[in-house]
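Extended Data, panel c. Modelled sequence:
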Amino acid sequence: MDAPTMLQVIRHGEGGHVVELSLDRPGSMNAISTAFSEEITATTAALGADPSVRAVVVTSTHDRAFCVGADLKERNGFTDAQMMDHRLVSRLAYRGVLDLPVPAVAAVEGYALGGGMEIALSCDLVVAGERATLGLPEVGVGVIPGGGGTQLLTRRVGWSRAASMIFTARRLTAAEARDLGVVDELVPAGDARDRALQIATGIAANSPVAVRNAKKAMRLGQGTDLAAGLEIEDGCWRATAFSRDRAEGVAAFVEKRTPAWPGT
């Protein structure tokens, strides 16, 4: 018998260009187990290889939690060897979200703690309902954020703000997270999914070649000096400017019509 799925994949809109990944392990508030990590890795790899996908929205089927982080019940009693095996698997899951070649939008309602917040940080944009709670509490249980939290949070909000959150293990209200820059947009409770899908739909209306290359330029240029970043941008510009999408975009503008993007 096949193992039960813990991740729903829903396509939205004409052409199914917007894909919703809905975390669906409600009995554990979407705690990330080894099997769940493997499913996230496989699903994001498949989406990344699918040229029809233009934007991804990460949601939860649980109204009280986006994701509460690592499955500590599973980890309890792990040998050192089992812990290392699990570590390799879980890293691939977070990287699967981070390395999506198309924009990803997290829709956070309820708790987004530890690895749950790191899934959100691995997305390009974070929308949160006003009753959401976010935090990286790992140091309180004897570990550190290991799904990219120490790096992604620092890049989002700066050293001192990230240090304050991580060192104290404190939880943020949605309003505090928005004010610190952890959350990009705050909406009424229950509206995060709809708003994230709206954003993703707007993204999907643009040239898929241009959007993918814009994300590539931004991600590869992050952390480099300006001169190196501009060279990366130039390479991505060239890859876009000589594409069929560019030709279609210019023609549609001149003819005053909606582009029919080739996507190549």
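The chain has two domains: 7-204, 208-255. This feature is highlighted in the accompanying rendering.
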